[in-house]
């Protein structure tokens, strides 16, 4: 029998932040699922090991429609950990919990299609500078993930294929950008991506992303500047 007078330490609660991928389907759902399938065919590891949030605000589904959509995602091995915008349809047993209050962020990309996925490892800041910036003195290797939501990230070397940088602000790469650059992840539409040699797998700023297949091939290998103009992603060669 446990001793009721025995002193127990208090329960500790610790916060921990994870960057989630938000899927926001639009009508018609069949077309959206077809586009999703095409994305997964190009990059089979897109959702591997990621926290997935399903935002159904644009659909306003009933309960049956929501269950059917969750079933379609489950069949594609895309587990949903939370719901946004589901309203009353998202209440009840057997459904992911409703979530609210998250800050906007950018989707996270997979390793290069057809390549063996290297285990992602969170890189420690090599040279922290003033608040709001992180400078990396060495190249970012394939399989590394740099997450710095506090501000800008500057890489003095290159970013390898299969590597990933997620910055709350802008991203500056003084070598080749061959991996994934996700800027403005803290909800910063004015964030920029600048690199000396443009060969990215994926670009994203403030939640708007572009994969390699959608990038102008004439820009590859050149110094490039990327920014947002409203809801459009713009690219230009640096003089």
From TrEMBL:
Family assignment from sequence similarity: Belongs to the MinC family.
Record's compositionally biased regions (Low complexity): 105-127
Pfam families, A to Z: MinC_C
Swiss-Prot/TrEMBL keywords: Cell cycle, Cell division, Septation
Transmembrane segments: none
Assembly mode: Interacts with MinD and FtsZ.
Domain Septum formation inhibitor MinC C-terminal: residue ranges: 136-234
Region (Disordered): 87-127
Database matches in InterPro entries: CAP/MinC_C, MinC, MinC_C_sf, Septum_form_inhib_MinC_C
Protein name per the record: Probable septum site-determining protein MinC
Gene that this sequence comes from: minC_1
């Amino acid at each position: 029998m446990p001793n009721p007078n025995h002193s127990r330490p208090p329960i500790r609660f610790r916060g921990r932040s994870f960057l989630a991928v938000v899927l926001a389907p639009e009508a018609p759902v069949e077309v959206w699922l077809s586009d999703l399938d095409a994305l997964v065919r190009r990059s089979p590891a897109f959702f591997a090991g990621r926290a997935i949030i399903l935002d159904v605000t644009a659909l306003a589904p009933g309960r049956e429609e929501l269950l059917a959509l969750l079933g379609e995602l489950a069949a594609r091995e895309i587990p949903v950990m939370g719901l946004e915008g589901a309203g009353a349809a998202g209440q009840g047993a057997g459904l992911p919990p409703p979530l609210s209050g998250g800050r906007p962020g950018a989707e996270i990309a997979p390793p290069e299609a057809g390549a063996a996925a290297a285990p992602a490892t969170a890189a420690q800041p090599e040279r922290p500078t003033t608040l709001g910036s992180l400078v990396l003195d060495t190249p970012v290797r394939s399989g590394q993930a740099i997450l710095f939501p506090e501000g800008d990230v500057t890489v003095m070397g290159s970013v390898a294929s299969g590597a990933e940088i997620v910055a709350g602000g802008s991203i500056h790469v003084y070598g080749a950008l061959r991996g994934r650059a996700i800027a403005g992840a803290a909800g910063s539409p004015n964030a920029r991506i600048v690199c000396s040699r443009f060969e990215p797998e994926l670009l994203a700023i403030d939640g708007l992303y572009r994969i390699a297949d959608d990038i102008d091939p004439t820009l590859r290998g050149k110094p490039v500047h990327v920014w947002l103009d409203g809801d459009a992603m713009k690219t230009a060669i640096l003089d």
